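Just wondering, does anyone understand these tokens?
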Amino acid sequence: MKRVCVFCGSKPGRDGLHGRAAEEVGRLLAGRGLGLVYGGGSVGLMGVLADAALASGGEVIGVIPEALATAEVAHERLTELRVVSSMHARKALMESLADAFLALPGGFGTPDELFEIITWAQLRIHGKPIGLLNVGGYFDPLITFLDQAVADGFISAANRGLFTVDVDAAALVERLTGGT
């Protein structure tokens, strides 16, 4: 286990709890000697996450589409910033660089990235661990939806088990990384 990809918002959210969780995840990964792969932004939870990992001496690799990089949201102090042609290229590169995936709160992009990586696991494109950090119950409605999809026969119980949910950042990182 070398790197964890974290999906999260380019906005901070209204509750400081989300920012504190992003900061904690950044510190935890760096403290375990794990690199961070993320969306490459300097704003919102993405910026908080990257800054915390960098401040703790961690490796931080950002992957950002050219259109966003030129819109001046790219983080300028990363270990490495990879600029790609599209969101599709971003997700593929992030998957190839990471050994595990973790989702924090975010807008449309976060569940898009999360569901694609879960779908790839379902299709056996990868077998890497996936987790949701359910900060302040943020993902409760999503979890309810997925449980309903299982009950209605659209998702198998086995595939529902492709990701782990926890409210504790340290416990989730431990579960995803196997104690690395």
Residues 6 and 102 are 5 Å apart (CA to CA). Helices lie at 16-31, 44-55, 66-73, 87-97, 109-122, 140-151, 157-160, 169-177.
